[in-house]
Amino acid sequence: KGYAPIRQDYEDFYTRRMYYRIHDAFNRPIASAPNSEMKVLERTSTVVGGANGTQGLELTGGQKDVLNLGSYNYLGFAARDDYCTPRVLDTLKECGWSTCASRTQAGSSPIHRQLERAIADFLGKEDAIVLGMGFATNSMILPALIGKGSLIISDALNHASIVAGVRGSGAKVKVFEHNNPDSLEAVLRNAIAQGQPRSGRAWKKVLIVTEGIFSMEGEACELAGIVAVAKKYKAYVFLDEAHSIGALGKTGRGITEHAGVSTSDIDVMMGTFTKSFGAAGGYIASSRAVVQHLRDTSPAHISATAMSPPVAQQIISALTLIQGRDDVGDGRGQRKMDQLKQNANFFREGLEGMGLNVLGDQDSPVMPIMLFQPAKIPAFSRLCLQRGVAVVVVGFPATPLLSARCRICISASHTRAQLERALEVIDEVADLCGLKHFPQTK
Ligand code: PMP
């Protein structure tokens, strides 16, 4: 009685939060798993860390190596690399771990500006700003860009960090049907016609917010359709490329390159360094005026400790390889990007060939396998782990009740033999769980 219905954006935020709880309950966080292999405690089946060590956890049982199909280490840069790692160690010796100050106090060092210039040039934007955390890049920058009297139109399945940012902005939020430009247009047309609540005045700004690859669906954004609607209604576009930068497009420039959309049509390009770059932090690349405004006003720049210099060096080095700059790395960056696509398409084809229901698009390194029934979540994950393959599983309320899934992430550092072995395991487990020959949902 008297309760307003839960708005979809709140609901989304809530369900995304629950996803992390479910993930924790069933699978335990895959703590820092830089390589394609990781270690698990045999007795508890708890994943404890990457191939480089046990991350300081106390071990009570024996260990065994398992194949990691759950981390976002798309290009394999989170592992040791003979171009990146020595440079990171040199920076560590020279600058230490932390600036222990924000960018506007004593925390700005030339390496931050070098990284910002490199990202802006890579994306063909006038300038960029980098922050120490990807989540904070969305949740803190969106409120600095837009506020009361403005309108945000957000994809129904946008990430929790975006939901936090749009809610914190004070702007009116409307949600459009996931990845559907027609729904975007309908919602936008309606909201523009109505204007601001009560006053009916025109919105100060209208911002469309979407992602390059959706992390729970593995789908590439319908960017061309979304940009066309944005142009028609003179709305701004904010694009989160956490999963697509470095992973999509022939030269790793993300969803814009993949979809044939010019970066000049995207007003605010956001991304994280925690996936393809194997590092930490986030960026915003945009016009000089927008980036300057963020430098002048965003508490995430003014009041938060600057990105760690060795982290900045890791990103600069990985980006140098991705761009094949200075003739370094024998074209290794390009080979990694090609390998990622080959691996992803090989694995997707293998899963589909088994008659499994697999979501997502060609070239996407994220591929959810539909389990449907929630009861299959723990069974699928444990049976895989017993056979040496660690996966992430997701269910209600992060997904509709009967849309539980296992979310596979492929890396360029997976070998063909590892992927073949993983397909054998999934084939066997899918039989045990009765997952084959469901009608395709695509
Ligand atoms: N945006 C999206 C789409 C994400 O999936 C994530 C996290 N995986 C983030 C932002 C937050 O990034 P980070 O983990 O680097 O803080």
From TrEMBL:
GO terms for biological process: ceramide biosynthetic process; sphingosine biosynthetic process. Its cofactor is pyridoxal 5'-phosphate. SUPFAM superfamilies: PLP-dependent transferases. It catalyses: L-serine + hexadecanoyl-CoA + H(+) = 3-oxosphinganine + CO2 + CoA. One of its GO terms (molecular function) is pyridoxal phosphate binding. GO terms for cellular component: membrane; serine palmitoyltransferase complex. Keywords: Lipid metabolism, Membrane, Pyridoxal phosphate, Sphingolipid metabolism, Transferase, Transmembrane, Transmembrane helix. Residues 64-426 form the Aminotransferase class I/classII large domain. The keyword Nucleotide-binding does not apply. Its EC number is 2.3.1.50. The keyword Transmembrane helix applies. Pathway: Lipid metabolism; sphingolipid metabolism; Sphingolipid metabolism. It comes from the Eukaryota. Belongs to the class-II pyridoxal-phosphate-dependent aminotransferase family. This is serine C-palmitoyltransferase. It comes from Symbiochloris irregularis.
